Model the fold of this input.
Amino acid sequence: MSDNNIICRCSDLTKEDIRRLIEEGYTTFDEIKRVSRAGMGPCQGRTCMPLILREISIITGKPISEIMPGTYRPPVKAITLGQIAEACTEGGNEHD
Amino acid sequence: MKQVEILVVGGGPAGLCAAINAAQAGAKVLVLERNEDLGGQLIKQTHMFFGSEKQHASVRGIDIASILFNKIYELGNIEIYKNATVLAIYDDGIVSAEINGRYMKIKPERIIVSTGASEKTLAFPNNDLPGIYGAGAVQTLMNVHGVKPGDNVLMVGAGNIGLIVSYQLMQAGVNVKAILDAAPEIGGYLVHASKVRRMGVPIYTGYTVKEAYGKDYLEKATIVKLNDKWEPIEGTEKDFDVDVLCISVGLSPLGELLWQAGCEMRYVGQLGGFVPVRTENLETTVEGIFVAGDVCGVEEATSAMVEGYLAGLTAADSLGYEIKDFEERKQDYLEQLQSLRSGHVGDKIRAGLDQVTIKSEAAVV
Done:
């Protein structure tokens, strides 16, 4: 049953998966993101990040206020290259 | 590239009020709203608001939204796009957005970020079963679309949202079996808590969800008491046969655009997480980027609206618009905020704000 304790809905990662990674030494959100894809799905970390930061805090003993969230990069939601290309070819939107 | 004077990101209570004041001052305003409806959480609020008359006390949230919509349509210089998500704020001040499926770049002179907050959730076994909702989803289903989320509900969280949504569920004829909260005390106003208690709903403080059960959807949930170290106490479990578990355990400010833009952010637990450092005028450490509402600290819709009015006023002032009685109006908003945050209930908010508000030089002297 405990296998279904979902932390990251987008990439289907459980609490056990996340705890294992922290114990292996991945103790920042960005490291966990790079090895597991947590936070890289449609929610972009909005659901899983607070839960993951809490797990890091519990295991490392570091207060949550001192654990940095992941790096936020554009775009905040998925957009297709086609949409960007269309905007460029339509004119009025300089190619800069 | 679209040029605008003031871009408001998010058309909830804070954003709408910001747009109204900025437009009244003479600025050309563009509001981008991610959803198909304006009004943010206001349109789901069927209960009457607190505060004073200036802040529409005793008016239902959904009716406050209509008052704001009417003001906006009266003003000619507010352009609104719905189904419009801001994707990024870049270093050079250019904003990109997806508007009705099309990608667009915008060059605003000022930005007011009023993106609100997202719901926190909980990790427990089988937390992915259908029937487990955030309180926002329950309100959207019930109050926007008229869909009953289920028959028997266990509410997780005894803050104002948990208490109010419990009451709304009962009004819709849904059975609320119990409300629980991990904190040792009820977080919401006692007037709300007393109301649901009088209707026979027990409130268990110091409890958390241990596990959810069900085959194709939620059928049962078990809660367990926590000791003072927040560890579960064996033997204190209680089972509830419910098909809905409504999670209302707080909100996180949605500051991702502010991080991208390079605003200084600080973790303030009392305000819900990372929030921007800002002046009394609600300007962040990046010149020209203002904030209002839950994105700069989770409170409630009334203070979000007052912050919106303030940010709209100060952003327009910073563009050089001559605003009659600017100082008086600004002081009035600051006093309204102070009064909303006064007393015991506001202790936490005031302590949080002290950590992120840059005092003006005049105040220091």
